[in-house]
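Posting for a labmate who doesn't have an account.
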Amino acid sequence: MITFDSSLLLGYYQAKTAGLAANATASSTSGVSSSSSSSSTTKTVPSAPWTGVATEPSDLVKAALNGRKFVDEGAAVAAAPTISGDYKKLFAAYQALNTLSAIANRSDEKGVTDSEIKRLQTVFSKGLNEVNSYVQNLSTDGMRLTTGAVMTSDKSTVGVPKSNYTYVTNKIYSGQIDDEVPAFKGAVSFTMNIKKFGVATDVTMDLSEMGATKRTMANVVSFFNDKLAAAGFDTQFAVSRTVGAERTTTVNGQTVKLPATGDDFALQVKGDLTETLTFSAPAPKPAVYITTAAGNPDPDKNTSTDDAVIENTLTKYGPGAGVTPGTKVFSDTLEGTVSTVHKTMTGPDGSLYVLADVDGATSSQTIKGDQDVALLKYDSSGKLLYARTLGASNTATGYNMAISDDGQVAIAGSVAGGLSGATNGPINSDPAGTLTDSFVTLYDAKGDETWTVRRGGMLEDAATAVAFGDDGVVYVGGRAKSDIPGSATGATAGGYDSYLTGFATDISGTPKALFTTHFGSENDDTVAGIVVDGGKVVVASKEGSEAMLRSFDVATSVVTENRTYLNDKEVWVTAPVTYTKAATFTAGATRDLGTLKGGNIAGLTIDNGQLYIGGSTTNGALDVNNKTKAASGGSDGFVARMSLDLTDKSQDTLAYYGGTGDDTVTGMAVSNGQAWLAGSAGKNLAGLPTVGDKDGYVAQIDVATGAATWEQRLTGKDGYATATSIAVDASGSSALDLFGIPRGKMDFTQTDKIVSATSARAGDTFQVRTRARGTLTTIKIAANDTLDTLADKIRKATGYAAKVEFSSVGNNRTLRISPSQTTSTVEILPGKGGTDVLESLGLKPGVVRNTKIDHGQTVSADGKGPIYGFSLDTGLDLTDDVSRKAAVAAMTKALSAVRTAYREMADTANGVKRADATASSGHVDGPVPAYLTNQIANYQAALNRLTGGG
């Protein structure tokens, strides 16, 4: 017996009779007048393209890859000659969306190669752009289309934080409310410095003054509050209580209720707008902050799959001794979107900064591309104070950072694709390309971006080190495959060469390069660290396999000149400006420490006037005198101390650290002559037993003696852990840790700048208009924009057709855009040229309009016909499995919107009232629409031929 798919013949006969059915429909409705919300100027209802013989998805994909247009009204007419008016436009959109759906589905199939995915992604992006352009410029008779959503209001899902004058510590104790808290026993005290109306007063909280009073949470809080009230301050403490969870178990098949777990208790500090709080404690000791990456790197034992789930953790330790672990103050898992931590550093205010790469939204800040850079600031108790993302439109990596004495932060790395608002070099890479450029961003002490420079050569380059110098100069070092513009020396032969650039702002505050120089070997080179001592700049670099130190003497020219400019009140003013106008450099001494033999340089710093360099190597004979600890074999860590002039070897000291296996170093920190190393532990490291399958470690090294004064192995998820960075605060561990209170100033305020609180960058845009095919007005984000100034821009750009309000979601302020009048309509569209900011602001593209009830149906209140939205996300892509599935779902939803539009247009053309259509949706009685009768007749005719019927 020969079998076949009857649906193919059914589709064939349906398509053959579609034209006749459409004509019959037109005749049956010729006496019905068109309503004001008609979706077409003709009553002829053509058969929908999805009811005929469908083109194979593979053929759609092939045609798209071969360059066929996605949107082609002519092709739509050729497929259905009877269509015209809005049907023609709707069907043209359907064909384009159907092709995009076929591409998305193909990308989600098994066995598709990476090269094919890239081709599919390219053509998919092209198709999305075609559909967007077509719909945005579409002229229709009745119905209206948008590639976005149809809304009564556009509510932002990303907000700007409000100032919050309440601080809640981490959990201090679990138990009962009247229990004595173990952490509060003994001689425990701290000092609050409270500044009010310019007068600073110290209030000491010494629990020994409580005498025989039981040190419960409530009693301690009362003691604090009595002291504050007696001193005349409004700041108060309170107890934060989280009720313990109920527990049950099963005994002989019966559920038995167990006592609840103990309640969790923390402290609340209720600050006051007029009072500035600074906390300190007696006899502080060093605190060590470590980030670790944990997780089995290959769970399925198949190297061709990417199935590792890595968990990044931030841990604070108090001082340890010998093999006795340091006191673990806290250990918090970082947000899951943190993929790699490159650097941690402590600031002058006692806070901790973490520089990381992120592959998704971080602390509610969305990212625009595949990967972005995030600067995360924590207080000494582990509370996240803020997150700042770079805002790259494609991908960016943050390699290094520096912190100045006054709290400024500079981060450096590489970026590919667009980066709005940056000061660009003369020959940067194409924003639409994949070659990387170097970038450096400067943040002020409040965390607001001061400036960003993007600078590159003809080929790939990256900034890998950064340091602050005198006179406002920021030094940046890195690697480049070609000459950096303005370099006094050309790149040497070979792969990557090292470079050093000095940046400072000009009279207008715009950053500029003062000088650039290249150096290196004929092999791949890169800068690993920079330190500055007055006019001397010392650079550590790995040149081929050699560990090299180079010094440069820099002389700056600082001038004061008058500048005439338009101030924020739009008034021209002239004022003197002091700035670094120029700088010259002279190459100084160099020192070759020898080959690292596959090792690395993990850190370079100055401590007590001496230079420290650390890393790992398999070379047990580095060219540094006075070895206080010999190498152990395999790959070992090392710390070397030497003179800053690089020539005097009399101060040399070198200590190796390791076991008989291979130990690596990923981070180094130095404080008061003590060095801390962190990394991945090999076998028999310091005789400590293995904790997991692959351990990390932290070790404190007395460089003068070579002794390890504190050692600890680290483990994590799945028994795999590697320490990825380390920072030490010489005064970071104290009695404040017992109370969960951070050291230094407790800052309750938050920046209100959009570019700081979101991933938006100055120069990012979106568009608005108030009628179909109307003139688009571009709204551009400025560096100092707040939600209030942005709201004013939206109101003005729409001629006040938009009502912009604010709402509170948690501790954030958000925007809400709605029509200002009953008949107002506002369309919100993405920005062009890689500058779209809608996702960063948490706003949806689409049409915002009011609605009314017409014959029991919700319709647009402006009376201009229905609006159908495809709800297409501008960021759809096919780069990974999750994205591909999202694209498939999005295309399905968009095609459904087209079918809905067709059905409602057909109902209107056939005189079926919306209320009737809605009311009959759940019933089998009532009149059948003529177009549906004809479709049923088509199906019956096909079945008759298949079964031999009449």
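Reply:
Got it, the structure tokens are right above this. Confidence is low (pLDDT under 50) at residues 1-42, 916-926.
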